[in-house]
Structures are given as C-alpha cells and as structure tokens.
Amino acid sequence: MAHTGVVYTREANGKELELRVSGKLYKDALVMFDRETGTLWTQVDGKALRGPLLGSRLTEVPALQTTWKAWKKLHPDTLVLRKPGSLRGSTYDGYFRDSSKRGLFGTQGDERLGGKDKIIGVREVGDAVAVPQSVLEKKTVVQFLLAGKPVVLMYALEAETPGVYRAVLEGNALSFRVRKLGGQTQIEDIETGSAWSPLEGKAISGPLAGKHLDRVPYLYSFWYAWSAYRPETRVISE
Predict the structure, then answer these.
(1) Could you tell me if residue 179 is inside a domain?
(2) Which residues contact 7 (CB under 8 A, 6 or more apart)?
(3) Exposure on the CB side of residue 25, measured as CA atoms within 13 A
(4) What pTM does this model have?
(5) Which of 12, 49, 220 has the alpha carbon at shortest distance from 118?
(6) What distance in Å separates the CA atoms of residue 32 and residue 153, rounded to the nearest whole number?
(7) Burial label, 79 (beta-carbon count in 10 A; 0-12, 13-18, 19+)
(8) Is residue 140 part of a domain?
(9) What is the per-residue pLDDT across 17-74, written as a single tens digit (0 to 9) for each?
(10) Average pLDDT of the residues of the chain
C-alpha cells in the first residue's frame, strides 16, 4: 500500500528467517512475520515491532527499482521469479493513480509534500533525507550530506531510475555535474572529468574508468508512508 520497495537480508540475531506477509499494517505499511519466532517486522524500516526479536532490525541491501529493459541490459543472465498470472499489470494501478487514496487509514504525513508524491528516501542513524522524484526529473544529479557524509543521487532519465552512492572514492570526496555532449546528457565528476553511469555508479570513461562508487540503500516510496516513519526527514527542494 505504501509503494515502498526495499530489500533486506533474512537474518537477525544470528538466525536465518523465513518472512511472510502477516496481513497487518503499521502506519499504513505492510507488516511481515518470521516463521521461526513469530516476530512482527515493519516493511518500511525493517524493525521488529513485537515478539522475541523485539528491538532487532533487518539489514538493508542496496537494490534498484527499475524497468526490466534497463535491468536486463545490465544483467543479461538474470533469472526471473515467475509468479502465477499476468506480469503485464498491477491490481494497484488505480490506487497508484488516485492521489486521494493514502493506505487504508488515509495517513497524511506532514504537509511539506503531497501525501502521494513519490520520493527517494535515504537514512542513517540520526539523519534522513527525501528527494522528490519531481526534483530528479529536472536536476538529474542531487548532492547532499547524510549523517555528515557526502552522498550523490544520480537519475537515469530513460529508465526513470535513481542510483544513490557514497560520493567518495579511495578516500577522496567527489562532486558531480551534468553536461551536454553531442546532444547527449552525461554525468561527470568535476575533479577528474570522468563520466559515470547512474544505474551502476561506475566510471565509464576518463581517468577513473572502471572504478565503482559504493551504493547507499534507498526506499522508493510515497511521501505519506516515509514521513510517517521519519518525520524528522530533510526534504531536498528544487
């Protein structure tokens, strides 16, 4: 219901867990349970809400929420988990399009953004940042500090996909800009002029060619869901 995409490891307190949908909601977002202990876990932040593992948290794994075309180009040997039924649509299409529908309970979130505005949210202990998708569609590159550490969000326009990375390579901070070359948009770092792939965080030409930035886990979510869990979030405006 919260339009939240996030991937976690299935381990907590040294236990390997099998996670299922509980049928419950917390702050209008899905709640999971593990079959081993019956502990309830939140979808949005991977935190144990109730049960023997209360106080534990699942570890986020960096992932991309992108188109099949873009993913297959990056990883042509990918195996697909095929579920019964059609993969050509979603039963939630109407819900996604209707700005008045915010979960089952009409959670609003704070008023800095519209409740159904899509955001890319990142967090660390003591800090959280949200970047509206509308900002990315105009700026392509957004740079900010997260818990005092430099982070860059690059947006692949054709694939409509964000990539979030530590803006540090081998101990050196990097800053980024967008340039138009031969009618093409290119993201490059100012320090060396190397060009970077927003989907991979990889330098594809220039002095740093072949180098990778470290990914930062992010959530692609509706604002009402993210802000209900992280009301202290800083919003990156245009």
Answers:
(1) yes
(2) 60, 61, 62, 63, 217
(3) 13
(4) 0.83
(5) 220
(6) 29
(7) exposed
(8) yes
(9) 999 999 898 887 889 999 999 999 998 889 999 999 998 999 988 888 888 898 999 8
(10) 87
What's the rounded Cα separation, in Å, for the pair 189 and 61? 26
Question: How far, in Å, CA of 44 to CA of 29, rounded?
Answer: 7
Which CATH number goes with the domain that contains 115? 2.102.10
47 located within any domain: no
pLDDT-derived band at 1 (thresholds 50, 70, 90) equals very low
Full residue range of the structural domain in which residue 190 is found: 110-238
Q: How many domains does the chain divide into?
A: 1
| Inside any domain, residue 221 | yes
Distance CA 123, CA 187 (A): 24
The pair of three-digit structure tokens given for residue 199, joined into one six-digit string? 């989907």
Q: Running DSSP on this structure, what letter comes out for residue 227?
A: H
Q: Which of 232, 210, 20 is nearest to 123 (CA)?
A: 232
How far apart (Å, rounded) are the C-alpha atoms in residues 220 and 161?
A: 10
Tokens of 193: 């002029």
